[in-house]
Amino acid sequence: RMSNNQKIIKSCRVCDSREISFLCNTKNNHGNIKLLHHFKCNRCGSVFIANIVSGDDLGVAYASIDQKTYYEEIQSENEKKFMTAIRFLKTHSDNQDKIIDIGTGEGAFIEVLHENGFNNLSAHEIEGANLSKINNGITKSIYQDYDYRTIPSNEFEIVTLLDVAEHVINPQYLINTCSRILKKDGLVYF
Question: How far is CA 24 from CA 57, 156, 182, in A?
Fold first, then answer.
C-alpha cells in the first residue's frame, strides 16, 4: 500500500506512458525517502521507482552508503564490464578521442581507460562524490552537479555510462544530455 503523503510520478520514466501498474513498496535505508514505490510500464516494460526524488535526496542517499564495502562487493563484476567496454572502445574509437565517463563513481573506469592508453578523459559525478583518485592528471576535466549543466555542449566523441541509466531520476533527460554533449556522430556506450 502506498503512503498518501508521498508524491509520485504518474507516468513511465522511460517512455512517458501513463499506462503503469503498481508493483510493490520497499523500505529504503538510505536517505530521506523511507518507502520506495515500484511501478511497471505496461507499454515499454520498464520497472521504475515512482517517488519524486531531488538531486539533494540522491546526494543524501549515496552519502549514507559505505563506499568502501560497496565498491569491494562489485569489484569483480565491474572488472568484467570494464574490459568488455575497453575491447569495444579500442575497436570503435581512437585513443585520442575525447571521452567523458558519466556516473564515474570513484573513477575506477577512468583509471582503466587511462591504463589502456586512452588519454583525453573527463568525468562526471554528483556533487559531494570523492574523485581524488582521478583528480591527479588522469582527467582533463571533472564535472560535478546533479543535472549535467556544467558539461559543455558538442565537446566529446564518446560518452560512457556504466551502471548509470538505472540510477538517474530522469533517464530521458540523461539521453538528451548525451546528445547535447556529443559531437556529431558521437558514440554512447552503456
Answer: 21, 40, 37
Q: Residues 70-109, buried b or exposed e (16+ Cβ, 10 A)?
A: eeeeeeeebeeebeebbeebeeeeeeebbbbbbbbbbbbb
> Packing angle between helix 67-92 and helix 108-115, nearest 10 degrees?
40
Whose cell is 549515496? That residue is 62
Q: What is the pLDDT of residues 15-59, one digit of tens each?
A: 889 999 999 999 988 888 889 999 999 999 988 889 888 877 877
CA–CA separation, 177 vs 102, rounded Å?
10
Cα-Cα-Cα-Cα dihedral sign, residues 54, 56, 61, 65? positive
Residue 17 in grid coordinates: 506512458
Question: How much is the pTM?
Answer: 0.74
Contacts of residues 133-136 at CB distance under 8 Å and 24 or more positions apart, as own/partner, are: 133/106, 133/107, 133/108, 134/104, 134/106, 134/107, 134/110
